[in-house]
Known about the structure:
The chain is an alpha/beta fold and about 280 residues long. Helix content is about 50%, strand content about 10%. The chain has helices at about 15-25, 40-45, 60-70, 95-125, 145-165, 185-195, 205-215, 220-235, 250-255, 260-270; strands spanning about 5-10, 30-35, 50, 75-80, 125-130, 170-175, 240. Helix 4 links the parallel strand 4 (about 75-80) and strand 5 (about 125-130). The chain starts with a strand and ends in a 10-residue tail after the last helix.
Amino acid sequence: MKKKVVLITGCGSGIGKALAEGFSNCGCSVIVTDKNGSELELLAAVGMTCMPLDVSDSSNIQKVIDEALKIEGRIDVLVNNAGFGLMGPMLDIAKEDIVQQFRTNVFAPLELMQAVAPVMRRNGSGLIINIGSISGIVPTPFAGAYCASKAALHAISDAARMELEPFGIRVLTVQPGAIRSDFGANAVRRVMNIVRENSWYFPLKDAVIGRANVSQEDATPAEELAERLVAIAFRDRPPAIVRIGKKSTILPLLKLLLPVKTLDKVLKKMFSLSSFRPSP
């Protein structure tokens, strides 16, 4: 039996790196990609095929797919993991930043799916794993752009799951909770450039930073997510949606059970909006 060939985006750290190691440990041929190619050196040292990939560059996507097929001849599993979190009040986020958020978190996964699906069809089977977020289910203050991008990815995944099933291609959506990674630190750096002194929410800058960091509070190790997800990926009938990590089940449950105004009140209190009294 041939080794499964797995292509993963965003492998420089966190979930992507842990998944690369998890699939490799299971005997797969793993092709790892990241915008910063130097971040992949440790994975290259243990035998993985490494390629620089800026998922916001369509020509770069096609080049990587072509190179992967030249090396391995097939792609059995695609993991769309690359992404970032744009945090900040909706009134403060520039249009071009929201466009880049969707370019990376939504359009790039779709382009990769479109590029890989014909390969999988020729092979008679395939698995596409899209890494979403519970933030796409439960939007919070100061994360509207990020939450919207993950909600859009969930919707695309749902539609593609039904459309691709007749061709033997499965689509699995992962909706992680708090997973230990560089996500918070990277999001905080962007917040510092968004919430300026003229912002309505400048007095709440610490709360906005807190939202950027909330995913790292008591976070589940990325290796734990990888171990569970790799095992699920090899099932004959994997579930359509998988939730892994702290808060990945309780928050969607609250969304389902609580009235909108009650959930709003809970989330506003979490991020200091309940006690916020703007100056005239």
